[in-house]
Amino acid sequence: MVNDLTRRGTFSRLSMGALIAGLGLIGAVSVDADDFARVFYDARSDQLVVTMRYRGTNAKHAFTLKWGACQDPQTGGSPALSGEVLDDQWKDPAVRDYQTTTRFALADMPCRPAKVTLRTAPRFYTTIEIPPLPIR
């Protein structure tokens, strides 16, 4: 009976250690890429406000937005539109964590209203609804 409990305790400690190490590895892998910290539409300025988290050797990364083509709505809602958020220093070695907020004017947005899906390398995305062009 004692041996059985001892084996279970050892197995539990080893399993917990492997789980913690695995979670640490997952966390380390996920922070090496650009990711969205916050995205919202600012109606007052008619801008898309994007806060990016990234890693690099410096804080002076600049982000640009490249629009895709408008896609007809599937079920009558707003058209779908993709946008790619590009980092001008995407090859910068991942040394430190940084965060920056960029405002993108929507004057060149190909369609409105739209359900916008923003993507950044390698696999992060977020979706936001952009309303019709404001009447001035």
Plain-language structure description:
By secondary structure, the chain is α+β, with helices and mostly antiparallel strands. It has two domains: 1-30; 34-130, no CATH class. The protein is built from one helix and seven strands. The protein has one helix at residues 2-30, and strands at 35-42, 47-56, 63-67, 80-87, 96-105, 114-120, 124-130. Strands 3-4-6-7 form a four-stranded mixed beta sheet, with no helix packed on it. A hairpin with a 3-residue loop joins strand 6 and strand 7 (124-130). It starts with a helix and ends in a 6-residue tail after the last strand. The relative contact order is 0.21.
Write the layout of secondary structure elements.
Blueprint: H1 2-30, E1 35-42, E2 47-56, E3 63-67, E4 80-87, E5 96-105, E6 114-120, E7 124-130
Parallel strand pairs: 4-6
Antiparallel strand pairs: 1-2, 2-5, 3-4, 6-7
What are the defining features of this structure?
136 residues; 2 domains; alpha+beta; four-stranded mixed β-sheet; disordered N terminus; three-stranded antiparallel β-sheet
